[in-house]
Sequence to fold (372 residues):
Amino acid sequence: MPRRQARPEAPPGRALQSPRSDAVGCGVDANAAAAQLRRVPFDRERLRQHAAALAARGVFLGTSSWKYEGWLGQLYTPERYAWRGRVATSRFQRECLREYAEVFKTVCVDAAYYDFPRAESLQRLADAVPEDFQFGFKVTDAITIKKFPNLDRFGDRAGKPNPDFLNADLFATAFLHPCETIRPRVGVLIFEFSRFWPSDYAQGREFVAELESFLAKLPAGWPYAVELRNRHWLRPEYFACLARHRVAHVFNSWEAMPPVSEQMALPGSRTHPELVVARFLLRPGRRYEEAVKMFEPYASVKDPNPEARAAGAALIAEGLAANAGADQSGGARRRTFIFVNNRMEGNALETIEAMIAAVDPERLASGVQARW
Fold:
């Protein structure tokens, strides 16, 4: 039977190593972070102000998806979705993005991974947010899956090779073309590659060769990023391939991936001088199903992760510092996107607040240092 491919947003594992202060950089001491496991009280207005100020300086913080009823009373106002004294789920699902965008300036649209977007659906998203809002989209898996997993949603295709794997023409027509209608709102397009197995590629360089050919065929001018789930493929050849095509590597916290701080420490990992992307999805070593069981309905943080918080703070500080230097020199500004999933700690809102709290408030304007 063909091996099942790891589902998107689920983790392969190893024990979390002791965090290293030299791995995260930008003045963040992850060992000190481990000692600071106090819960940061959630303050919606404070988060709104910080998110807006950071976005104005090129650092966008947001969550992976947004339709979580566990955030009612925290991010969302129950009365806005009430019908006969109760929250109407359909109204909440349909309208909550508008309230989400009152606080955040970006969100990762995970739904695009499962089906090609339609122009009218994208326009509805754009109509619900202000003009300075930036969407992150996961590219549809019809482009990024090499062999269809044995899952019901793939029907007769389950277990079979995907004839459209890395099909640049299909991507351009079925994904990019609908996005043209909201192009100013597109912050980053993420090609998420689930873990490959030896039956897919004997060696990582085989994948890099195919990726090189694919990236060379993509229409220019769009903000592309690649998320890889094979830890041993994070090698100079892979980073060099992305750099040649001005494509960002997505620093991702996932089951079988090294912590984000370790990825940040790899030479050449900043593959695009004007785009940095990170997704904090799962604690390394924890399976997706375990995280769902532990954390639903995602109303509060249940398992603080000091390494992830420190890495997020370091990325914030790094992005601010890069743009402070660019403003002084007249160079190009960097855009940093940091997306946090509820399954990282239990509540993405509080995780983001903790990351921001690790950046010295007095230095947020200049962005030269972070602290715990």
Summary: The two ends are 49 Å apart (CA to CA).
